[in-house]
Amino acid sequence: MTSRHRVVLVRQRAGAGGGCCGGGMSFEEHDHRPAAGRDAAARVRMEQVGELYRAVRAALPDVDVQVVEPRNTAWLVPAIWRDARRRGLAPRDALEQVRRGVADGAMVVDGLVVSAGDVPGPAEALGLVRAALRE
Amino acid sequence: MPAILVVAVVLGLYALGYRYYSRYLAERVYALDANFVTPAHEFTDGVDYVPTNKHVLFGHHFTSIAGAAPIVGPAIAVLWGWGPALAWVVLGTIFASGAHDFGALVVSVRNKARNIGTLTSTVINTRSRTLFLAIIFFLLTLVNAVFAIVIANLFVNFPGAVIPIFFEIPLAIAIGQYIYRKRTAALVPSIVGVVLLYLMIPVGSAYPISIAGLAETVGVGERTLWIIIMFVYAGIASRIPVWVLLQPRDYINSHQLFIALAIIFGGLLVGFDRIVAPVVNTALPAGTPNWFPFLFVTVACGAISGFHSLVSSGTTSKQLDKETDARFVGYMGSLGEGSLALGAIMATTAGIAIVGLNWAEEYADFAIASSGAVGHFVQGVAGFASNLGVPMALGTVFAAVVVVSFAATTMDTGVRLQRYIVQEIGGILGWERLEKSLLWPTVLAVAVPFGLAVAPGDLAFGRLWTLFGTTNQLTAGLALSVIAVWVMRNNRNPIAQIIPLTFLLAMTTWALLINTRNFFGDRDWLLGPLNVVIFGLACWLVVEAILALVRASRERAEITEETPVRPAP
After folding, report:
1. Distance CA B17, CA B93 (A)
2. Rounded distance, CA B415 to CA B412, Å?
3. Which residues of chain A neighbour B260 with C-beta distances below 8 Å?
4. ipTM of the complex
5. B52 and A105 in contact by Cβ < 8 A?
6. Average pLDDT over residues B304-315
7. Nearest alpha-carbon partner for A73 in B340, B299, B254
8. Nearest to B243 among A20, A26, A42 (CB)
9. Subunit contact B47:A46, Cβ cutoff 8 A
């Protein structure tokens, strides 16, 4: 991806942890019961973020969109820090973006956290992304 | 020999492996195509199928495959000397694991990101799906049994770890609740969690908990009582939603993984410690299993692990942006796991001397080496931590906490996955009670490994561990068969899969044959029959692999015959 702009969507998978030998397997592949019986909330959230992902990709095809698990701090923390500094934020502010940006459900546009907590709807999210890209 | 020199050489070999061997695999064997439309693009939904930056995906992949298993095997295998153990870890990582993890990812991507279980039925035949489920059933059973023993041994030998570990459970739940309710970031709470957890280390060290008295009252051994407690815990933990305990503890574990790696390699660098174990141990007592073939089933994870194919073809393949990224994600993931195994070998051959332990006494025979393996790792890490100024007693509890945290999460996940596998097997057999119920699969998923964990006795852990390694290698064998058939059908040379496949199957069947003879000779009526069943699965796998490869070879020959010879330009 050669785009100058990057949108990072943070979301937790509903699947397993546990490392070798147990981690990384998707529970859904083996659990054929309805979603309500298992990680329904996590799945709903994954789907909300998915909707958002599709909306941003469709509206802004030149923007690099990444979906990242909050556990993947080795990539997430430096990426937000780097983007925030590139945006011109002071170290203290960049650190604040990192603190807020590693939340499940966070949306980070070029190092700026535009949404954290509840996942916004696609239209609202697009507005937030466009505004952040203009800044 | 200075340990740091060995580490530098091994890391150099890993770099060469990535530079040259993975390039050969990428270009000549898997023929990666940057223009191939990966399932992440074909089915993009932003939920399961998401084109993901290769560095992001590597982070997901590595944290999913790294755990306690690559520590235990190498910590036992240094009994034969650090030379054979390290040679297998290095060669296995570069030539077997690299081809396996990378290949499973590519084949899955080329087959709409289907998992390896489904691929066995589509690439080999439908019968193989049952074989896959049977192998996974035994693999998970053995995983849960061996990790329950690992935890129990650590609690008995390092009672200072009990308070921090039991504190970690409500701590993780509190973090999970906080993140879930506040919809806030996990990073700061999980770092605070790690700090709070480590603050409990001096407390645990000052107030070590022994349940020997309670065990005596109940009429069981202390270790057995810990195993009972761990299975009760795992049974309950596997029934609650993942975000309550499993995921928040996984956050804490992901920090602990990097802290432990930094302490091992940082301590080694600062201390410039020497390896005290022999290169090849020639002072082994009579009756010690020969390193050929037992080394290759003792070290599974860390050299090659079948479980990685489940990860590669489970979640990773759905997120691969470009097919060419598979080289970085799949092969580099193997090198990461190999580095963990390298750390375990250094801790048990160099770190162990810092704490004043006599290596020859700690590795006097196979039974002592295997039952004490994780303890040796813990002591070795404490030694490296002491090089960095951490008091030895606290370093010991720290290392025990790290290993137990990983092992407990693996048990939680293992019991959960086993329940699903039992349900799936119930469906195949048409047993509705097993397929539809939640209770009976959970009972089975807990009871079977529990029986295995308590039955063999204190010094038989090594037997159980080699059985686990064998089953893990069979899973790898099945995945390598699938990859080899796919490579052959695509008219390319499958030698990179055939060699590790043949080697693994030869070593596992050889080890199984020896074990069967020994177990029945010792009148071990639990592990003996179990060994026979796993041997049956190995034979079944050999037959399926040969049939599939012969069929693929014939198909290739027919295609070649039918293809008209192009006239020379």
Report:
1. 9
2. 6
3. none
4. 0.80
5. no
6. 87
7. B254
8. A42
9. yes
DSSP line for B486-519: HHHHTTS-THHHHHHHHHHHHHHHHHHHHHHHHH
Q: Name the residue of chain B whose CA is nearest to A52's CA.
A: B46
Out of A15, A22, A104, name the one closest to residue B315 (CB): A15
Amino acid B318 reads K
* Mean pLDDT in residue range A94-120: 90
pLDDT at A43: 75
Percentage of chain B exceeding pLDDT 70: 97
What local confidence, expressed as pLDDT, does residue A32 receive? 47
Question: How many Cβ atoms from other residues are within 10 Å of residue B121's Cβ?
Answer: 17
Q: What is the pLDDT of residue A26?
A: 54
Confidence of residue A38 (pLDDT cuts 50, 70, 90): very low
Q: Which residue of B lies nearest to A95 if distances are taken between CA atoms?
A: B188
Chain B residues 194-233 within an 8 A CB cutoff of chain A = none
Query: CA neighbours within 13 Å on the CB side: how many for B428?
Result: 13
Residues near B525 by Cβ (< 8 Å), separated by ≥ 6? none
The minimal CB distance from B472 to the residues A21, A42, A106 is found for A21
| Digit-coded pLDDT (tens) for B502-534 | 999 999 999 999 999 998 998 888 889 999 999
Residue type, B448: V
Contact, B141 vs B448, CB < 8 A? yes
- Whether residue B247 lies within 8 A of chain A, CB to CB, comes out as yes
* Crossing angle (nearest 10°) for helices B461-489 and B366-387: 80
Q: How confident is the model at residue B290 (pLDDT cuts 50, 70, 90)?
A: very high
pLDDT at B148 over 70: yes
Average pLDDT over residues B479-501: 95
pLDDT score, position B395: 95
CA dist B238 and B227 (Å) reads 16
Inter-chain residue contact A23 with B183, CB threshold 8 Å? no
Q: Does B16 touch chain A (CB under 8 A)?
A: no
Q: Using CA atoms, how far apart are residues B206 and B431, in angstroms rounded to an integer?
A: 52
Average pLDDT over residues A49-63: 92
Q: Do A117 and B184 touch (CB under 8 A)?
A: yes
The conformation of residue A14, written as its DSSP 8-state character, comes to S
Cα separation of B561 and B542, whole Å? 28
pLDDT at B556 over 90: no
Flag the least confident range among A125-129, B312-316, B349-353: B312-316
Q: What is the Cα–Cα distance from B532 to B538, expressed in whole angstroms?
A: 10
CB-based burial label for B368 (10 Å; 0-12, 13-18, 19+): middle
The helix (run of H) or strand (run of E) holding residue B101 is helix B98-110
Q: Where are the alpha helices (DSSP H) in B207-330?
A: 212-218, 222-237, 246-271, 291-298, 307-312, 325-326
| H or E element in which residue B547 lies | helix B527-562
For residue A8, what is the enclosing H or E element?
strand A6-10
Q: Which of A12, A21, A47 sits opposite B307 (nearest CB)?
A: A21
pTM of the entire predicted model: 0.89
Q: How far apart are CA B232 and CA B159, in angstroms?
A: 19
Interface of B with A in 395-424 (CB under 8 A): 406, 409-414, 416-417, 420-421, 423-424
